[in-house]
Amino acid sequence: MSETTPSTRNSLWAVLRRPSARYSLISLLGTGFILGILFWGGFNTGMDATNTLEFCISCHEMRDNVYQEYQKTVHYNNRTGVRAVCSDCHVPRDWTHKIVRKLQASGEVWGTLVGTIDTKEKFEAKRAEMAQHEWDRMKRTDSRECRNCHRYDAMDMELQDKTAKKKHGQASAEESGKTCIDCHKGIAHKLPEE
Question: What is the pTM of this model?
Answer without folding.
Answer: 0.73
